[in-house]
Write a structure and sequence with these properties.
about 400 residues; Chitobiase, domain 2; 3 domains; three-stranded antiparallel β-sheet; 14 strands; about 40% helix; elongated
């Protein structure tokens, strides 16, 4: 189809979208799920018809899934789950086949697909070359104006979503997702030590003198792991992300997690020093965590000895006095478990909280990258970042180093 008096610019772009849709629904990820193919076809056609106002959860439930007019969307998650399945299969499709002239995406939290044009449709190029070559510059302006005037093509100008690219192979996998969160030891005074503590306190301690020091034998470990607040906030951000994509998640404390719990599943490891599974992968990749003297922890570049170790100025338990924390976002294919694994961890819990924000909020990760390229098509991706801390709260984050292989 060329560009001529009877063929509009809009029709050329519409044809490109329809061709891409046909390519998608005829692929293996969608042939195995009629529901996903039907939902994607429905929402794309509604956008091409200019009926985006019809793409609401309730409307889809009624028109596409046969729900009653008064059905409760908060109790019936059929549409949300189906949309999450579509997003997962789209990620798998583009991971395997790549984009054509246009890429079709279904953003999280929305049922309105967006079309990202990677190049001008071939019919448009042929028409220009054959008949209106002398109007090429003018037509380029017309095309740009036409695209901007179409509500359903405006999202094509949207910046790439680094969060979606980071998680794409994970969301495309068929295994379950297991979040293994780090746990810190909990300690208490035994009865004799509590009496000693009370007498020392009544006598004016602590005053920094040796007589005020509690003997170590008076402290006993409580067999219950505690999860730092920053790690919990990171887990909460992950749960929101996976819920939006229609994925169910199991949460386990790293201390009680066995390898059989992770085998064949996608493991998301949260926390560094408190997570024994992160300890087990030390030294396997370019960037890794390293224990330092005086109960300190840092991130090391194993390939470049000239790079200083990224570490905190103030060690535990005074981490809130630091003005900076460091962390790592990592994704890799784990041969032992036979699945992808992800690590989100800071040196302190605040760094882990920042890792959770960067891994779930596209605008924050995009700002932190500041244009630095990341090849998310590689199986192994590591991103080292620095985050500011202001009065115990997170500030701005900045990516310091990237490795992909």
């Amino acid at each position: 189809m060329g560009v001529n008096g009877s063929t509009s610019v809009n029709e050329v772009y519409r044809a490109a979208v329809e061709t891409e849709l046909e390519r998608i629904v005829n692929s293996a990820p969608f042939k195995s799920s009629k529901r996903s193919a039907r939902l994607l076809t429905f929402v794309v056609q509604r956008v091409l018809e200019g009926k985006t106002d019809k793409l609401k959860e309730r409307t889809l439930g009624i028109e596409l899934f046969g729900r009653d007019l008064d059905y409760n969307t908060s109790e019936d998650a059929t549409v949300r789950v189906a949309a999450g399945e579509v997003r997962k299969r789209l990620a798998q499709f583009y991971l395997e086949h790549g984009a054509g002239t246009v890429r079709i995406d279904l953003p999280a939290g929305s049922y309105v697909p967006v079309f990202h044009f990677t190049s001008q449709p071939a019919d448009m190029r042929r028409g220009l070359g054959r008949r209106w070559r002398w109007l090429a510059a003018g037509m380029a302006v017309v095309v740009a104006v036409a695209l901007l005037s179409l509500a359903y093509f405006a999202p094509a100008q949207k910046a790439p979503d680094p969060v979606a690219e980071f998680w794409a192979p994970v969301l495309a996998s068929r295994g379950n997702i297991v979040i293994a969160v780090g746990e810190v030891d909990t300690w208490n005074l035994n009865p004799a030590a509590r009496d000693l503590y009370k007498s020392l306190r009544d006598s004016g301690c602590p005053d920094g003198t040796p007589r005020c020091r509690m003997p170590m034998e008076g402290i006993e470990r409580i067999p219950v792991g505690m999860v730092p607040r920053g790690d919990l906030n990171a887990v909460a951000a992950l749960l929101s992300l996976f819920h939006q994509r229609g994925r169910t998640v199991q949460i386990l404390g790293s201390g009680g997690t066995r390898f059989t719990d992770l085998k064949g599943q996608t493991a998301v490891l949260v926390g560094a020093g408190s997570n024994r599974w992160v300890e087990r992968i030390r030294g396997r990749f370019r960037f890794g965590y390293k224990r330092l003297p005086e109960i300190r922890y840092g991130i090391l570049d194993t390939l470049d000895s000239s790079t200083p170790i990224w570490a905190l100025e103030h060690r535990w338990p005074n981490v809130l006095r630091n003005s900076t924390d460091y962390g790592l976002l990592a994704r890799w294919w784990d041969e032992d478990s036979g699945s992808f694994a992800v690590c989100l961890a800071g040196i302190s819990p605040l760094g882990t909280e920042a890792a959770g924000e960067l891994a779930t909020k596209p605008e924050l990760l995009r700002k932190a990258l500041a244009g630095k390229p990341v090849d998310f098509s590689k199986r192994t991706v590591q991103i080292v970042f620095r985050t500011g801390i202001v009065e115990g709260s997170l500030g701005r984050s900045e990516v310091l180093a990237i490795h992909a292989e």
